[in-house]
């Protein structure tokens, strides 16, 4: 009787995970396993002798490797060698400085697996690791490429480009080939389906000491998101071309050449929904962008801007930009300008007093205002009061004060406490160091 009850219990026990999954057809097993991280798929090898090598035949694995030493690297190489072709995504990061020179060997191995996504984050070093094996990747399969701290030679003769690319991110990448900027132009032109592009601190090799790279154009018929942080010294005189579908742009305006065509730049970003302009105050110091800001930003909903309320040319440019963004919902302003010698507080104040009262349509859709690194000067407070007075849909105002400001958060909050508000329910928070005041 006891033996019979034990047999009955064994029959009623649910099947083991290995048994449940093993009962499925092979193609269904592959589909289930491919949705897991490769590390978890490899662990199925301990389920039973039948499953010891099962993971090696699963296509489209997502291989995410975080290197923490030579042994980890060797394990990662072993896993990649045994993975079935193709792999969906391969990402490697955390590479120790001493192992960075092996990156191309790893990439050669990855290229043989026809990856759809490749991400390689290497440590910065004086001589970045060269990656000629990149061009061995299947151009019809590679849809996402993200590289950091490496070098690319000129592509081999006959290489037509990665025409399936939908996302490209290059950060601190050195182009060794002659006229490397043309190489980037060709890379973009070869990928008409590119939707995301991020170029940060890329550098082009030039033959003559002291010379700078030439002019080149950044464009794309289907580009939707663009991030640019490029310097004149390393990346040359870049310009924005036609970007008809651009929705989100983050552009650092540093090291701008004197002859930059700002009309083209602002025309290219005039249809975006989200826009971030870094160093806007720096480039407008020499003169306002009045003609370049005549384009209507009809779709703009989120604007993040480095500007200030102390230099007349910068504030005038800011005024014209905001004037063209009537549907703005989120505004974030960062002030990083601290040169007391050229402050023009009085001139800016006079301009504000003459134009702000007539700006009745400003901020009618604004919901959130954030002011970062400001000292809560009179001009900055005047601007905040104007927003509070005009923005009927305002939900919150957040102020993060400059640490060196002589004004306290309590003093700033008292100035705004009695301000007439178009939206009485709007929350106001002012932070100065560890002190936070809610108005």
UniProtKB/TrEMBL annotation:
Annotated region Disordered: the residues are 1-23
List compositional bias (Basic residues) regions by residue number. 1-13
List where this protein forms a coiled coil.
none
Q: Supply the InterPro entries for this chain.
A: F-box-like_dom_sf (IPR036047), F-box_dom (IPR001810), FBL13/AtMIF1-like (IPR050232), LRR_dom_sf (IPR032675)
Q: Where is the F-box domain?
A: 24-59
Q: Which Gene3D superfamilies match?
A: Ribonuclease Inhibitor
Q: Which PANTHER family match?
A: F-BOX/RNI SUPERFAMILY PROTEIN-RELATED, FBD DOMAIN-CONTAINING PROTEIN
**What's the protein name?**
F-box domain-containing protein
Source species: Panicum virgatum
Q: Taxonomic lineage per UniProt? A: Eukaryota, Viridiplantae, Streptophyta, Embryophyta, Tracheophyta
């Amino acid at each position: 009787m006891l033996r019979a009850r034990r047999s009955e219990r064994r029959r009623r026990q649910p099947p083991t995970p290995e048994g449940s999954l093993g009962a499925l057809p092979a193609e269904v097993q592959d589909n289930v396993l491919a949705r897991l991280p490769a590390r978890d798929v490899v662990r199925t090898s301990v389920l039973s002798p039948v499953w010891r090598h099962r993971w090696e035949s699963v296509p489209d694995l997502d291989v995410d490797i975080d290197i923490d030493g030579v042994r980890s690297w060797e394990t990662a190489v072993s896993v990649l060698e045994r993975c079935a072709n193709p792999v969906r995504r391969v990402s490697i990061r955390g590479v120790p400085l001493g192992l960075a020179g092996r990156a191309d060997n790893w990439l050669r191995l990855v290229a043989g697996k026809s990856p759809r996504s490749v991400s390689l984050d290497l440590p910065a070093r004086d001589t970045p690791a060269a990656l000629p094996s990149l061009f061995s990747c299947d151009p019809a399969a590679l849809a996402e490429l993200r590289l950091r701290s490496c070098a690319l030679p000129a592509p081999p003769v006959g290489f037509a480009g990665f025409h399936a690319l939908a996302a490209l991110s290059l950060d601190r990448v050195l182009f060794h080939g002659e006229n490397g900027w043309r190489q980037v132009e060709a890379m973009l032109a070869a990928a008409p389906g590119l939707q995301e592009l991020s170029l940060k601190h890329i550098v082009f090799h030039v033959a003559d000491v002291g010379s700078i790279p030439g002019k080149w154009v950044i464009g794309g018929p289907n580009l939707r998101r663009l991030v640019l942080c490029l310097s004149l010294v390393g990346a040359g005189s870049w310009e924005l071309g036609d970007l008809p579908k651009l929705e989100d742009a983050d552009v650092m305006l540093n090291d701008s050449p004197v002859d930059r065509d700002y009309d083209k730049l602002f025309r290219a970003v005039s249809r975006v929904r989200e826009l971030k302009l870094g160093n806007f105050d720096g480039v407008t110091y020499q003169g306002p962008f009045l003609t370049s800001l005549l384009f209507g930003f009809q779709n703009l909903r989120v604007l993040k801007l480095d500007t200030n309320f102390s230099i007349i040319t910068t504030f005038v440019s800011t005024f014209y930009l905001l004037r063209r963004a009537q549907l703005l919902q989120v505004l974030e302003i960062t002030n990083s300008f601290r040169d007391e010698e050229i402050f023009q507080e009085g001139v800016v104040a006079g301009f504000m007093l003459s134009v702000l009262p007539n700006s009745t349509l400003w901020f009618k859709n604004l919901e959130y205002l954030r002011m970062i690194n400001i000292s809560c000067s009179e001009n900055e407070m005047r601007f905040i009061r104007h927003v509070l007075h005009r923005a009927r849909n305002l939900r919150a105002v957040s102020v993060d004060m400059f640490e060196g400001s002589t004004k306290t958060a309590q003093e700033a909050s008292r100035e705004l406490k009695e301000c007439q508000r178009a939206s009485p329910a709007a929350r106001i928070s002012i932070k100065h160091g560890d002190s936070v005041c809610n108005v």
